[in-house]
Amino acid sequence: MNRQKNHVIITDNIRSAQNIGSIFRTCDALGYQKIYLCGISATPPNKEIAKTALGATETVSWEYIADVNELIIKLKEVGYVICSIEQTTDSIMLQDFKPNFEVNYAFVLGNEVDGVSTEIVLKSDICLEIPQFGSKKSFNVSVAAGIVLWDVVSKSMNKL
Prior knowledge:
Layout: E1 8-12, H1 17-30, E2 34-38, H2 47-53, E3 61-65, H3 68-77, E4 80-85, E5 92-93, E6 104-110, H4 118-123, E7 126-129, H5 141-159
Parallel strand pairs: 1-2, 1-6, 2-3, 4-6, 4-7, 5-7
Helix pairs in contact: 1-2, 1-5
């Protein structure tokens, strides 16, 4: 299976170190190779991250960037398409998202309470929304990461 070398993950102020660890583990399992940890997001080494990452902090590269806005600007300058996982009036439903595998995506995951910051949503090229059918209209951020990142991998496999 192709590794998702061209795509990166950005955490926008994720509070829970265990969520960060789960995102590392998901990235490893699905072949995503880089995570940018931003703002208040915890960074390795951290025993709470280690609990859920199960060693994935050793196989997925990461970088801490304090200011997510600066990172977004830099990634856009080198051609990344910024894709926030957020519910907005202009969101594309995940099942309708047709990734262009000729471009690099930066998938932004937001804070557990507030989601992706409004400032980052406004700088995003795309917002993706996961369809939901229950009374709660949000997923845990690590679960949302797994759903979206798997969807992209699945679509890349179907493209082959």
